[in-house]
UniProtKB/TrEMBL annotation:
GO biological process: methylation
Coiled-coil stretches: none
Stretches assigned to the Methyltransferase domain: 76-165
Molecular functions (GO terms): methyltransferase activity
Phylogenetic lineage: Eukaryota, Fungi, Fungi incertae sedis, Mucoromycota, Mucoromycotina
Organism: Phycomyces blakesleeanus
Protein name according to UniProt: S-adenosyl-L-methionine-dependent methyltransferase
Pfam families, per database record: Methyltransf_25
Keywords of this entry: Methyltransferase, Transferase
Disordered: annotated span: 1-22
Amino acid sequence: MPFRPKDTFKSNADSESTKERKRIHHNVQASSYWLPNDDIEQDRLNEMYFALKHLYSGQLLPKVKEILDFNSNLKVLDLGCATGAWILETSVEYPNCDYYGVDISSNFPALSPNNTHFMLHNVIDGLPFVDSYFDYVRLGHWTSNLKEVEWPPFLKEVYRVMKPGALMLNLEIDTMNHTLDATGSLTALYMVNKINKMYPDLVSVLPGLLKNAGFTTILTDKRSVNFGQDDHNNIRFVSLATNIIQKLGYLIGPALGMSAEEYIASTPKLIQKAKDNHAEWTYVAFLSQKPKKK
Ligand SMILES: C[S@@+](CC[C@H](N)C(=O)[O-])C[C@H]1O[C@@H](n2cnc3c(N)ncnc32)[C@H](O)[C@@H]1O
């Protein structure tokens, strides 16, 4: 099982703080994914989905829409889809496509449109799809999902299920921005991934991994959120950072060598420091393509 600092914490920041609360994690022995999969975590992931939608001005990068016609019947795959937020919204905006969401935990919607399909599946066991099926594959925040050795066979599988000319988007946070990481969350992410034999700086190695798997990277899009700037979306990210400290503090505190309670209690101070230091989070989107047949 993956390393996890303590599973329980007491917090004054949470509405359920008066009693000790146990967080819930998946129980798939073969997977090292170490973040929780309970309702609190799904709320956090939904909040992150909306913040990123704003940062990227919508569901799809302009380059994706330039190459693929989402008004036609594309086959779309969201790996590690969590609550299915991206699929649900995209399937309304582009109803002619078929959407498949795969995740190791089933936090899928109970009701969803006919053109959406959700599957409980561990991608380490391969992908349950025929060759050359998908036109677009999306992977959001995979930095804590796979061990280093699991990446090459996984990318080979993704490549297999994509049509020639199909696109894949990898969206990741840059964990190397340590000096500006006033809240400590990136440092903790880096450290826990390293202990779990995952790439602690996935953003630096992804281009090489993609190339080795046969993909051609056609766009690298970097966007930073500056905690010191008072614009609408940055405020949303400040709220997301506050949420991360409070909801994942039981992991981050111990990873930084302090108690969860101590770390969570310092939320206002950490956020103020992040604003004063103009701390940044940088997101990197890699858009790559399976080469077209010659
Ligand atoms: C950090 S969350 C990101 C969720 C969403 N993609 C996003 O961008 O917000 C990672 C997701 O990948 C899923 N996941 C982790 N390891 C997996 C595996 N081996 N197979 C399938 N899903 C996995 C987790 O359950 C979780 O929902």
